[in-house]
Amino acid sequence: MEHRPLGRTGIKVSPLCLGAMMFGAWGNPDHDDAAAIIHRALDAGINFVDTADVYSAGESETIVGKALASVDRSRVVLATKVGSPMGADPNARGASRRWITAACEQSLRRLKTDHIDLYQVHRPDETVDVDETLGALTDLVRAGKIRAFGSSTFPAEQLVAAQWVAQRRGRERFQTEQPPYSILVRGIEGHVLPVAQEYGMGVVTWSPLAGGWLSGRFGVGKENTSERDKRMPRRPGAGGRFDLTTPANQRKLEIVTQLAALAAEAGLTLVELALAFVLEHPAVSAAIVGPRTRDQLEAQLAAPEIRLDPAVLDRIDEIVPPGVDVNPEDVAWQPPALRDAALRRR
């Protein structure tokens, strides 16, 4: 499997990154089976593993730590994230110096490692000055506890602001961004991806299969409610993404049916088409795949070797135009002024 530069970190990563969100209570609670999936991914040439403290309340990090204890840690690029709520404590979340420092120590213990290769702020935190966040992360780099740090699901304007603050205040900078990106979620093409390229940031995309919509299980005439019901209770806030009664999701069913036909014409599975599309973008360092089972992983391993014909890419653009998010709920973060009506009417 080829390797790509992770921005300007000097780190080389496989184009597929193994995401561990589905390991633990949110997906596959069998620790041994999850470890076997991790080992299979490594054997297949994937050298990049991504998790987060919030996934199954730390259980995912624990599974990853156990699995990596039996391999050569120096050959694995290990990433995790901080910022999402870890329980009821109002201070056990966000991007403050207090929480980042404490959360990093907890992640290191669960992961059974002395350093994290890529530490990412899971979502923007409007309550904290970005200089405080960058300062805390810079200190972790200089202490040797993390090698590089990045952001996840940040809008383009906050990426630019953070780069400016890092330069003016002498901080280390966000070197990567982890945004949602798939054929159904293309909004980042207009702003986030060009900004990442401008600043030499690595891009590690999440949900290239649009949360399962591009797995082949959905489409007109085969609405898989069992798959929808399986995901909804485990993934907080995911319900709206699988509500098949909404107009946006009805439109997604129509699109997925067209994409499945296009994939068949190209001699590909829908999974392969979806992953190859994401990997075609020159800004993308790696696409995160989040298998719950070994079969799901196996279905995705061929994607890095596929190159889509320009005619196929043009047809995808006709089905879902560049820069379009078919269902805005899939973006997973909105500015406070859009979430809180009071902020729009002051």
UniProtKB/TrEMBL annotation:
Residues 15-320 form the NADP-dependent oxidoreductase domain. It comes from Amycolatopsis sacchari. It comes from the Bacteria. Keywords: Oxidoreductase. Pfam families: Aldo_ket_red. Residues 222-244 are annotated as: Disordered. The lineage of its organism: Bacteria, Bacillati, Actinomycetota, Actinomycetes, Pseudonocardiales. GO terms for cellular component: cytosol. This is Predicted oxidoreductase. GO terms for molecular function: oxidoreductase activity. InterPro entries: AKR, AKR_Detox_Biosynth, NAD(P)_OxRdtase_dom_sf, NADP_OxRdtase_dom.
